């Protein structure tokens, strides 16, 4: 059985450039309606399609606009963006340079102060992904964040997490994954 999974990144958040944010619950920029229209133009009708979303507003709000049947939306903490802990909502330039440089040398395994490492994110996303694949629903929508989508792509491409940053995903990015066999996936970047 072929399975179609749509990975959808949230639209543009209302946050100043240069701010470290991940797990912070942000509002959306004014261009939400325009971005929503673009996303909807390339997606199939989501009626009766199980939709999984990060509980953070920027994802959940988009999920509610894509899925008319809100009872089909399941909020999953595993789909939250990386928690930057003490760095959340600070300007990157305000973070102690030595601490930031140490973290950047090994961000895969090193946690931010009172936050997560990329490895923690990848492990929780992997757990979620395995559960979803086992359900074998014909179509699934996942509304989430950049780091989560990167983690899923690492799983599918069997890539080390450090190489995930090769993928550029704009706000409102849409990726269609077709699972055509046990370990066979066709991936198409739609937006």
Write a structural description.
By secondary structure, this protein is an alpha/beta fold. It has a single domain, classed as Rossmann fold. It is 31% helix and 19% strand. Strands 4-3-6-1-7-8 form a six-stranded mixed sheet. Helix 4 (118-135) crosses helix 5 (146-157). The longest helix is centred in the middle third of the chain and has 18 residues, at 118-135. It is globular, with a radius of gyration of 17 Å. The protein starts with a strand and ends with a strand. The mean pLDDT is 92.
In short:
With 191 residues, the protein is an alpha/beta fold. It is 31% helix and 19% strand. α4 crosses α5.
